[in-house]
Design goal:
two-stranded antiparallel sheet; Phosphorylase Kinase, domain 1; 10 strands; 2 domains; 31% helix; 328 residues
Length: 328
């Protein structure tokens, strides 16, 4: 089971009213239900690994942790369903700017409702513990699959890539650029449904004139899959996501990213200046049309790439059979 990486996204409506005892946050709904409690030793809202209830959720097990938040497997008591519950780490819960970012993350994630996007259910606060709940996905990440298998069969890689393209199309239609498409942020269920996670890094390109502004500090994204303009902290748009999807598909087909190196700086420089290593040499038998589509997605300049993720998906689809989940 995976708690949607560390982040999740997508929802029918934020604040479904089923969360629990948390109070309403400005501009969003928190749920109603039994009071959350803190066990001894959890002063300041800090969560341990033992079972407890926060808001309307019973904490069952820790799934993963990042710098800002920790994800738990939990049961939403009111609906008797298992979810992934992300909780803002206590150090950051004391800082209004991080609380605002955390809530904005849930709102951003919740703007996209699509079968190939991880769904957000609820967001709220209980006794200084800030949380949001999301779909718990039963399946490995593509990164896990690549670690275990090296590379994926061509039809499977294309199917996953086209499903991620559908997810990105939904995000882009909401004016969002994901900015961190990579194997670790794609989870695959037992029946082959790919789910894009971690929209917490997404930026709104509608309010910024069609482009997402650079990070206030540092560079968002992962160097192995990052578009050159993103690595340079320049403005990004949907074509930056297309580049990252192309790099992800390259990894699925070849067994390694298109560019590697000893440091992040070297990798990013190779994205900007290096020639994409031939897929057909690394893996004979990959259709020439697929290699051409990936190379176009990996254009150094955004204008050299596909203008929309749909066009990239169509180029991939022309080289293979229909997706198992096509049209969802």
């Amino acid at each position: 089971m995976h708690g949607a990486g560390v982040f999740g996204q997508g929802r029918p409506a934020l604040g479904s009213g089923t969360g629990g005892a948390g109070r309403k946050l400005p501009g969003i709904w928190s749920g109603t239900g039994g009071a959350g409690r803190k066990l001894p030793g959890t002063a300041g809202g800090q969560m341990g690994d033992e079972s407890r209830q926060i808001g309307g959720y019973e904490i069952l097990a820790k799934l993963g942790a990042g710098t800002v938040g920790t994800v738990y497997r939990a049961k939403q008591v009111a609906l008797d369903r298992i979810v992934a519950l992300k909780i803002l780490n206590p150090t950051y819960a004391k800082r209004p700017d991080f609380v605002e970012r955390f809530v904005d993350e849930a709102r951003t994630a919740g703007r996209v409702n699509h079968p190939n996007v991880c769904q957000v259910y609820d967001v709220g606060e209980d006794r200084d513990v800030y949380y949001f709940s999301m779909e718990l996905i039963d399946g490995p990440s593509v990164a896990d699959m690549l670690r275990e298998r090296g590379r994926l069969p061509v039809p499977e890689a294309l199917d996953i890539a086209r499903q991620v393209a559908l997810a990105l199309k939904a995000a882009h239609s909401q004016g969002l650029v994901h900015r961190d498409v990579k194997p670790a942020n794609v989870l695959v269920t037992g029946d082959g449904l790919a789910k894009l996670v971690d929209l917490g890094l997404a930026k709104d390109v509608v309010s910024s004139g069609g482009k997402a502004a650079p990070q206030e500090s540092g560079v968002a994204g992962t160097p192995y899959y990052m578009a050159p303009e993103q690595a340079q902290s320049a403005d990004v748009d949907i074509r930056s996501d297309i580049y990252s999807l192309g790099a992800t598909l390259y990894h699925m087909l070849v067994g390694e990213p298109p560019f590697t190196g000893p440091t992040a700086q070297v990798v990013m420089a190779r994205h900007a200046l290096g020639t994409v290593p031939s897929i057909s040499i690394a893996r004979p038998g990959v259709p020439a049309g697929i290699e051409a589509a990936v190379n176009k997605a990996l254009g150094k300049v955004p204008d050299d790439r596909y203008g929309t993720v749909r066009k990239f998906a169509e180029a991939l689809g022309a080289q293979a059979g229909p997706s198992l989940h096509h049209g969802r």
